[in-house]
Design goal:
By secondary structure, this protein is α/β, with parallel strands linked by helices. The chain has 2 domains: 37-236, Alanine racemase (TIM Barrel, Alpha-Beta Barrel), CATH 3.20.20.10; 256-384, Lyase, Ornithine Decarboxylase, Chain A, domain 1, CATH 2.40.37. The protein contains 11 helices and 19 strands. The chain has helices at 16-31, 44-48, 52-62, 72-80, 99-103, 113-126, 147-162, 185-202, 215-220, 354-361, 365-373, and strands spanning 10-15, 38-42, 66-69, 86-89, 107-110, 130-135, 166-172, 209-213, 228-231, 256-261, 264-268, 273-274, 280-281, 286-291, 308-311, 314-319, 327-331, 340-344, 380-384. The strands form 3 sheets. Strands 11-14-17-16-15-18-10-1-19 form a 9-stranded mixed beta sheet.
Length: 391
C-alpha cells in the first residue's frame, strides 16, 4: 500500500471513489427488484467519520437521491456546501427553531405532537409549509411516537396539513434487529409499521415516502423496503451484518485507511513488560515500534493487546495497553523509526480492516470508523479519488 510522502505522524485517508462505487452497487441492487425504492445515504456524524461534504458528494454521484443526517447543523452545512437535493434531518431538541431548516428546504422529523407544534409555529412564522416525516416507534423504544400516541400525532399532522402549514412527506420507523434476519422482532416491527400506515391512511394522509429499512434491512429484508431505504455503514464499505454477510461478498470496499509512522523502534528481551500495568510481557526477544496514536485520537482502549496492524507487510498487533497518545506493536526485524504502520484499510494489500478491529475490540465497525473522524486533529485527513489524487 503506497503512503503519502507528506504526512509525518499519522493520516486518515478517505477513498471517495470507493464510497461512490459502494453507493452505485447498492442502488443497482435495490433497483433490480420490481418497484425498487429510492435510496437515502446517511452522512450523519461527519459521514461516519469519513467527512460530511466528501461523503455527501460521493453519495450523490453514486445515485443517492436523498441524504440523511441526525442534527440540524449537518443539514444546514450541506446546504451551505451547495447540496440542493432532498435532505432529512431527524433529531431535534425541544425549543429548537425549525425555521432555518424549513427555509433551507430541508425535510424534518416529528416524533410527538409537541414537536409537530414547534414545526408548525416555525412554518407559520415563515409563511412556508414544512415537509415533515412522522416517526412511529415500532419497537426500538428510541425516537418516535409510541403506538399509544400515534393516532394523536397523525390527527394533528392532518390538521396542520389541511391548514397549509405542513406537508406530510414521509412516515417512517427504524428496525432494532435487522442485522439478525431470523429475529422475531423484525416481522413484529413490520406489522406495527403496517398498522401505523393504516392509521395514517384512514386519517387522510398520503405521504410521498414510507421508509423503514436501514443498511441491514436494505440488504437482507426486501419486504421492509417500501418507498425508500436508508443506507448507512454499507455506503462506506462495511457490512451492517458481518455475522451474516461480509462486505466483500456484497461487493463493497472499505473507504477509510488509517496509518501512522513509527515514532521510534527498539529491541526488547524475554521478560520485558510493555506499557502500563505490564499486561503484556514478552515471551521472546523482539523488535517493537511506537505508534503515535492513542485513545485521545480515537483508538479504542479495548484494542489493548488485541488491535491488529500491519508493519512492513507483517500482520501484527498491539502489545499491552493503548495509552492516550501512543501504543506499542511488534515489528519485523529491521523496522526503523519513520516506517509505516497500517492500522486498517480496505484489506486489498493484506492489511486489517475496520471490521477486523471491531471483531478484536468486541464492538461494531461503525464505532471504529466514526471514532477516527472525531480525533483531536493529530492525524491528518485527506480525501482521494480514483487516481489517488487529493480531492
Amino acid at each position: 500500500m503506497s503512503a503519502s510522502a507528506e504526512y509525518s505522524r499519522a493520516e486518515i485517508v478517505i477513498d471517495l471513489a470507493a464510497i461512490r462505487r459502494n453507493v452505485e452497487t447498492l442502488c443497482t441492487a435495490v433497483a433490480a427488484h420490481a418497484d425498487g425504492p429510492a435510496v437515502m445515504v446517511v452522512v450523519k456524524a461527519d459521514g461516519y467519520g469519513h467527512g460530511l461534504f466528501g461523503s455527501a458528494r460521493a453519495a450523490r454521484a453514486g445515485g443517492a437521491t436523498w441524504l440523511g443526517v441526525a442534527e440540524r447543523g449537518e443539514a444546514l452545512d450541506l446546504r451551505s456546501d451547495g447540496d440542493s437535493g432532498r435532505i432529512l434531518a431527524w433529531l431535534a431538541m425541544p425549543g429548537e427553531d425549525f425555521g432555518p431548516l424549513i427555509e433551507a428546504d430541508i425535510d424534518v422529523a416529528a416524533y410527538s405532537t409537541a414537536q409537530l407544534a414547534e414545526i408548525v409555529a416555525a412554518a407559520q412564522a415563515l409563511g412556508q409549509p414544512a415537509r415533515v416525516h412522522l416517526k412511529v416507534d415500532t419497537g426500538l423504544s428510541r425516537g418516535g411516537a409510541p403506538r399509544s400516541q400515534w393516532q394523536d400525532l397523525v390527527e394533528a399532522a392532518r390538521t396542520a396539513e389541511t391548514d397549509g402549514h405542513v406537508k406530510v412527506a414521509g412516515i417512517w420507523s427504524h428496525l432494532a434487529c435487522a442485522d439478525q434476519p431470523d429475529h422475531p422482532a423484525n416481522p413484529e416491527q413490520e406489522g406495527v409499521f403496517e398498522a401505523a400506515l393504516e392509521v395514517a391512511e384512514e386519517a387522510g394522509l398520503d405521504p410521498e415516502v414510507r421508509h423503514l429499512a436501514n443498511s441491514a434491512a436494505a440488504l437482507l429484508h426486501p419486504e421492509s423496503w417500501y418507498d425508500l431505504v436508508r443506507i448507512g455503514i454499507a455506503a462506506y464499505g462495511l457490512s451492517p451484518a458481518p455475522a451474516v454477510v461480509s462486505a466483500e461478498s456484497l461487493g463493497l470496499v472499505p473507504a477509510m485507511t488509517v496509518r501512522a509512522r513509527a515514532a521510534m523502534t527498539k529491541d526488547i528481551a524475554i521478560g520485558d513488560g510493555v506499557s502500563y500495568g505490564h499486561t503484556y510481557v514478552a515471551d521472546k526477544a523482539m523488535r517493537v515500534a511506537l505508534v503515535p496514536l492513542g485513545y485521545g485520537d480515537g483508538i479504542p482502549r479495548h484494542a489493548s493487546s488485541v488491535g491488529p496492524v500491519q508493519v512492513r507487510g507483517m500482520r501484527s498487533q498491539v502489545l499491552g495497553r493503548v495509552c492516550m497518545d501512543q501504543f506499542v506493536v511488534e515489528a519485523p526485524r529491521g523496522t526503523l523509526a519513520g516506517d509505516e504502520v497500517v492500522l486498517f484499510g480496505s484489506g486489498a494489500d493484506g492489511e486489517p480492516t475496520a471490521q477486523d478491529w471491531a471483531d478484536a475490540c468486541g464492538t461494531i465497525s461503525y464505532e471504529i470508523v466514526t471514532r477516527m473522524g472525531g480525533i483531536a486533529g493529530r492525524a491528518e485527513r485527506r480525501w482521494t479519488d480514483d487516481d489517488g489524487t487529493l480531492v
